Structures are given as C-alpha cells and as structure tokens.
Amino acid sequence: MFFAVELRWLPTSGQIDAAIDLTRRTGFLVLDSLLEANWAALGSALKHLLLPAFTLGIVFSAVLARVIRSSMVETLRMEYLTAARAKGVPEWQVVLKHAFRNALIPAVTVAGLQLGELLGGNMIVETIFSWPGVGRLAVSSIFARDYVVVQAVVMLYAITYVLANLLVDILYTILNPKIEL
After folding, report:
1. Cα distances (Å, whole numbers) of residue 12 to 53, 96, 130, 131, 168
2. What letter does residue 178 receive in the DSSP assignment?
3. Domains of the chain by range and CATH?
4. Sequence-separated contacts (24+) of 39-43 with Cβ below 8 Å
5. Is 131 left (phi over 0), alpha (psi -120 to 50) or beta?
6. What's the pLDDT tens digit per position in 13-44?
7. Does residue 158 register a pLDDT over 90?
8. For the CA atoms of the chain, what is the radius of gyration?
9. Strands of 48-166, DSSP E
C-alpha cells in the first residue's frame, strides 16, 4: 500500500479512472480497452489491477515456489537423472524435461488445494479494493442477510473447487502417464 497511499503511484480502489470513457463489451476492462485500442484505458485498468492481483497472488506464489523448490531438490537427486547425465544428456534437458516435469506433480496438488484459499481471499480483496465481483456480492449479501444469494455463491465456489481438483487429477495423468484416473 506504500505505492498507493504514500507515493500515489497506484490507485487504492476501483477498476478504471472515472475520466476514461470505455465501452464495456465483455466486462473485462483490460480486454475491452485492447479491443478498442484505447491505450489510456489499458494503462488505467492495469494500474487498478496491480494491487489486487499482487495481494491475491503473493502468498500463493510464495507457497508454490517453496513446494517447487523442495520438489526439485528432491527430484534432482534421483537415480534416473544421474543415468541421463551419464548418457550425455545436456544439463538443461535433464533439469527442464526430466526433473521439472516430475517436480510439478506436488506443485499441481498444492495449486489445486490453494484455489480454495484464493476463492476465500477474493471476497476480502474485492471488498477492500472496491471491485465488483462474486466475492463482494457474497460479502454484501451476508450483511444484507440475503441467504439465497449467499447459498448460490457458496455453491458456485464449491463447484469451482471441485472442477479445479478434477483438472488437477487430469494434469496428473499428463505429467505422469503411470497415474490413471
């Protein structure tokens, strides 16, 4: 928030500057500004997107980086990589093609599980940064005691979480063909 409050480099709320005229076709302001080739709107939309995206993504990326690192350290010690090096496979191929692919399996698991954290976090982020969205709708519906909307949002989040974990299972079979659904 230092860049937004003290230095005034970034906006603290909203999606786009009020003075910018942009036709909303898709509802995604970055995409709408690209479709219209409105570069001022694009810059404003990206500035407004930076803090909410950073707020949601920083914890997620830190956990994911730790999991990938520990998995890579463990994978690089495996015997099949020593055999690949002994056959003369270049080190970059050993790391990227063999080790990284196998190290991604735990990372995909963690990413799928952290989606629930992101879904919960978006309620707070949308409320703090004044972004319209499902999270803010859920928070305002809780305060208004509109339980039908709250139930619908919870159902939407549950379906999203289940579908994301299904995608994780499908990615397992792509990353490791030995695993079957």
Report:
1. 13, 40, 9, 11, 34
2. T
3. 2-175 (1.10.3720)
4. 41/16
5. beta
6. 777 887 888 888 888 888 888 988 889 888 88
7. yes
8. 21
9. none
Residue 25: name the closest of 16, 34, 14 by CA: 34
Cα–Cα dist 16/63, whole Å: 30
Burial class of 26 by CB neighbour count within 10 A (0 to 12, 13 to 18, 19+): exposed
Q: What are the angstrom distances between the C-alpha of 179 and each of 39, 48, 115, 141, 156?
A: 47, 42, 22, 42, 29
| CB 57, CB 48: distance < 8 Å | no
Give, rounded to a whole angstrom, the gap between the first and last alpha carbons of the chain: 44
Distance CA 85, CA 79 (A): 10
Largest CA distance in the chain: 67
Per-residue pLDDT, 48: 87
